[in-house]
């Protein structure tokens, strides 16, 4: 009987060790889940901010394009527009350069015709 009691106590101790280990692992995993949720929330905030910036830039580009197409341009107007664009976007990317070139060609083509 003594051996049985000793075995039951040992097994009981093993169970408590396993439970303690599982509880510690659960705490670690919950901490990791919280960290990942916080990281996901920050990434969502960044995404929304970038989407808003992109939408604002697109709106501004459409407004400028409309202004370019609807005016009777003098050379001084072109110089002022280009200075404004360079001030807003000191190093325009390739898409902006191409779009500006297309709009410029279209507007000057209309004036020449």
What is the N-to-C succession of helices and strands? HHH
Contiguous low-pLDDT stretches (5 residues minimum) are none
Helicity range: over 70%
Number of strands: 0
Alpha carbon gyration radius? 33 Å
Question: What structural class do the secondary elements suggest?
Answer: mainly alpha
Beta-strand content: under 5%
Instruction: Profile the largest sheet.
Output: none
Tell me the count of domains: 2
Mean pLDDT: 81
Number of helices: 3
Could you say which overall geometry the principal axes of the C-alpha atoms support? rod-shaped
The termini sit apart by 111 Å
Oligomer: single chain
Coiled coil: 19-53
Protein name: Septal ring factor EnvC (AmiA/AmiB activator)
Organism: Zhihengliuella flava
Keywords: Coiled coil
Summarize the structure.
Keywords: Coiled coil. The protein is mostly helical and 113 residues long.
Account of the protein in words:
The chain has helices at 2-70, 75-88, 94-112. It has 113 residues and is mostly helical. The chain has two domains: 1-54; 71-113. The longest helix has 69 residues, at 2-70. It is rod-shaped and about 95 Å long. The N and C termini lie far apart (111 Å).
List keywords for this structure.
3 helices; 113 residues; 90% helix; 2 domains; mainly alpha; rod-shaped
């Amino acid at each position: 009987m003594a051996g049985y009691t000793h075995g039951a106590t040992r097994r009981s101790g093993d169970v408590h060790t396993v439970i303690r280990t599982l509880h510690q692992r659960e705490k670690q995993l919950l901490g990791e889940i919280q960290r990942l949720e916080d990281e996901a929330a920050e990434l969502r905030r960044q995404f929304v901010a970038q989407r808003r910036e992109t939408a604002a830039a697109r709106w501004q580009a459409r407004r400028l394009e409309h202004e370019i197409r609807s005016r009777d341009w003098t050379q001084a107007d072109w110089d002022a527009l280009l200075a404004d664009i360079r001030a807003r976007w000191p190093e325009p990317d390739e898409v902006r350069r191409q779009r500006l070139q297309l709009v410029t060609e279209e507007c000057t083509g209309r004036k020449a015709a």
